[in-house]
Amino acid sequence: MNLSDRIKMARKKAGLTQSQLAESVGIAQTAISQLESGKTLRSSYLVQISRACGVNSTWLVSGEGEMLAPEDVTTYFSSELEEILRGEHEDDAALNAALRDRIEELRSASRYAPSNSLLTEEIPYLIELDDSQDPSKTVVEISVKVHLDLNTEILSKQGVLPEYVVAVAISGNSMAPVLQDGGTVVAHLRETQVVDGRMYVIDHGGQIRVKALYRLPGGGIRMKSYNTYEHPDETYSVREMEESRIRIMGRVFWGASFY
C-alpha cells in the first residue's frame, strides 16, 4: 500500500472530505487531492494529516505498524467509559450494566481497532453497454455511476490495489449453486494468467461471463460452468478465442454468495 492509499484510507476512517481534511491541516484541498491521486509523493504536512485523521503518524508516513496505534485505542476506550461513569445511574447494578453494554459495543465496533474492518473502498462494476459502432452488439465497460462498497481488509489480504479491482453482477444460473443469480463477484484485473480450476471474469464478444477456466494445449482454454446439466463445458483454441473476441479480464477473489 503506497502513501496515496494510506492517506485516502485515513481520511475515510475519520469521515472527512478532502476539503474538510485540508481545512483541518491548513492547506489547500488540491494538495490533498494530489496526494491521494499519487501526483504528489511527499509532503511536510503528513504528521498534521495523521493527527487530523486520528491515525498513527508512523503508519501514514512509512506504512510500518498499525493504522491506529495501541495508545489511541486505549484513549478511545477510556474516554467512552469515563463518560458513562460521569452519568447518573439508579444504583451500582445499573452502572455495571451500562458499562458491560458499552464495552461490548466497543469490542464489536472495529473502527476502534487496528484491523480497520469497517473501512470500505468503492469498487466500480463492469457493465455491458450498446456498441456505438453497431447497436446490435454490446461492449464491456467500467461503470462511472455504480459501485460496490468493499471492505478494505479483503483487498489487503489479497494484496490488490483498488484501482485494479472491479465488481461483476451475476446473471443466470450457469454457476449455481456456487454463484447465484443476482450475486456479486470481485476480480483483480492484473491476474489474467489461467490457473486451472480458478474462476475468472471474461469479456466474450461484449458479454460479461464468469467461469472456471482450464488451460488447453496450444494456448486454448476450457470454460466450465458448475451447472453442467444446463451448461456444458466450452472449449476454444487460440484462433477461436480471437474470432469470438474472448478476453480474460481478471481472476475472481471474492464473491458475496460463496466466500
Automatic annotation (TrEMBL):
SUPFAM superfamilies: lambda repressor-like DNA-binding domains, LexA/Signal peptidase. It comes from the Bacteria. One of its GO terms (molecular function) is DNA binding. The keyword Heme does not apply. Keywords: DNA-binding, Transcription, Transcription regulation. Transmembrane segments: none annotated. Residues 7-60 form the HTH cro/C1-type domain. This is Helix-turn-helix domain-containing protein.
